[in-house]
């Protein structure tokens, strides 16, 4: 699979890059993608939810009415879940939602996500670039030049570039990450991947380890 290298003005530089088959040419494993995305979303949950059960309610323990002769059901405590202000039955308790998946499954999931985007022709390779200063308008100009102003994009850089990151931070539907930090969720969530030319060799090196 060959792709043309574009510059930030959206022009073809005349260069071609061969996309690594070990990443972009594999048969996507949808179940691995599902597991990795599920893990990512589970890790976003705080798990601090808590409601009081009847033993934790601060109310009187006095029997609220006599046992018989009222015509209604027996009631021994105002803490009962059937009364307003009573405890909740089997309420939520703090818990950790994370779970474990193997490193090879995570790697397969990420490569599968790249392969899905490759099959959908949703990848553009950009010539290495940088900004002199962080400016949102500069990043918007790049997206407009690539005709991606209203598209959910993910830019993958070889290393952290503060000027590019800060320039993109306030742009809706735009996200910037690095090769080391890219994850399956971000890849699947984006409609278009923008990969820096210098990031491709790092991707291939990581996969062949």
UniProtKB/TrEMBL annotation:
GO terms for biological process: translation. The keyword Transport does not apply. Keywords: Ribonucleoprotein, Ribosomal protein, RNA-binding, rRNA-binding. It comes from the Bacteria. Signal peptide: none annotated. One of its GO terms (molecular function) is rRNA binding. SUPFAM superfamilies: Ribosomal protein L4 (SSF52166). One of its GO terms (cellular component) is ribonucleoprotein complex. Residues 48-75 are annotated as: Disordered. InterPro entries: Ribosomal_uL4, Ribosomal_uL4-like, Ribosomal_uL4_dom_sf. Belongs to the universal ribosomal protein uL4 family. Part of the 50S ribosomal subunit. Forms part of the polypeptide exit tunnel. This is Large ribosomal subunit protein uL4.
């Amino acid at each position: 699979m060959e792709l043309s290298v574009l510059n930030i003005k959206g022009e073809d530089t005349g260069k071609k890059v061969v996309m690594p088959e070990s990443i972009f040419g594999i048969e996507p494993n949808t179940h691995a993608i599902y597991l990795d995305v599920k893990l990512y979303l589970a890790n976003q949950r705080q798990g601090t939810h808590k409601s009081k059960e009847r033993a934790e309610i601060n109310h009187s323990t006095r029997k609220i009415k006599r046992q018989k002769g009222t015509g209604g059901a027996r009631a021994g405590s105002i803490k009962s879940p059937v009364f307003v202000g009573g405890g909740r039955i089997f309420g939520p308790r703090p818990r950790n939602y994370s779970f474990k998946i193997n490193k090879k499954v995570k790697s397969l999931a990420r490569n599968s996500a790249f392969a899905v985007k490759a099959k959908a022709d949703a990848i553009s390779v950009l010539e290495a670039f940088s900004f002199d200063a962080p400016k949102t308008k500069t990043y918007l100009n790049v997206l407009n030049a690539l005709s991606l102003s209203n598209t959910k994009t993910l830019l993958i850089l070889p290393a952290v570039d503060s000027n590019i990151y800060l320039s993109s931070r306030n742009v809706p539907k735009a996200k910037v990450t690095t090769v080391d930090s890219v994850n399956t969720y971000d890849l699947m969530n984006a409609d278009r991947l923008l990969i820096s030319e210098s990031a491709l060799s790092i991707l291939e090196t990581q996969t062949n380890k």
